[in-house]
């Protein structure tokens, strides 16, 4: 069965964005881009909330075609265009979106149906609201977290709507030169 892996940057105190959604504190560099690119290339499906999907859709389809596109932009743009996209939204309509599935109801049933289909892990990019909804139903199988060396004090929390204790097993940890630490957890049990 396929797994849903939540991929997020977060502050040391567990926030994925500032109180107004700001993410200017996120630290990324070529070392992180290379690490993420390798892992992302092993997946064939991306899951987003509506807001993150629209942000991605505004940039990634043509990012690799820009004259100043770097290696990361070219590779991720190609991956994005080839990947199947799943969007959690109560307001979007499935209006001829290429290679995209919109889920607006029966979240648990629809996600479990997709998880039973052939394919690789499903990467949930950003999307704190989608993460909260999936957490509420116990549908996230792992967390790929990039802990940034900052304490925000307040903002949008990564972990919300957790009904019961969730035990995790650390698979990999990695420190990057820029101070970010990657933690790769799988739900244990």
From TrEMBL:
Gene Ontology biological process:
riboflavin biosynthetic process
Q: Which InterPro entries match?
A: DHFR-like_dom_sf, RibDG_C, Riboflavin_Biosynth_HTPR
Signal peptide start and end residues: none
Cross-referenced Pfam families, in alphabetical order? RibD_C
Domain Bacterial bifunctional deaminase-reductase C-terminal, first and last residues per copy: 2-181
GO MF terms listed in the record are:
5-amino-6-(5-phosphoribosylamino)uracil reductase activity
UniProt-listed SUPFAM superfamilies:
Dihydrofolate reductase-like
The protein's superkingdom reads Bacteria
Task: Provide the protein name.
Answer: Dihydrofolate reductase
Q: Which organism is it from?
A: Mucilaginibacter ginsenosidivorans
């Amino acid at each position: 069965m396929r797994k849903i892996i939540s991929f997020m940057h977060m502050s040391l105190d567990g926030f994925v964005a500032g109180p107004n959604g700001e993410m200017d504190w996120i630290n990324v560099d070529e070392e992180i881009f290379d690490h993420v690119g390798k892992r992302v290339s092993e997946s064939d499906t991306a899951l987003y909330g509506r807001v993150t999907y629209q942000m991605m859709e505004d940039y990634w389809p043509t990012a690799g075609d820009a004259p100043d596109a770097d290696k990361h932009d070219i590779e991720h743009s190609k991956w994005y265009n080839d990947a199947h996209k799943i969007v959690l939204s109560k307001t979007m309509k499935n209006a001829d979106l290429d290679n995209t599935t919109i889920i607006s109801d029966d979240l648990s049933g629809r996600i479990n149906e997709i998880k039973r289909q052939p394919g690789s892990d499903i990467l949930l990019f950003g999307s704190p609201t989608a993460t909260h909804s999936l957490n509420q139903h116990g549908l996230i199988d792992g967390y790929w977290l990039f802990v940034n060396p900052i304490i925000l004090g307040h903002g949008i929390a990564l972990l919300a709507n957790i009904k019961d204790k969730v035990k995790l097993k650390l698979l990999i940890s990695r420190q990057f030169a820029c101070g970010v630490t990657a933690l790769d957890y799988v739900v244990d049990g």
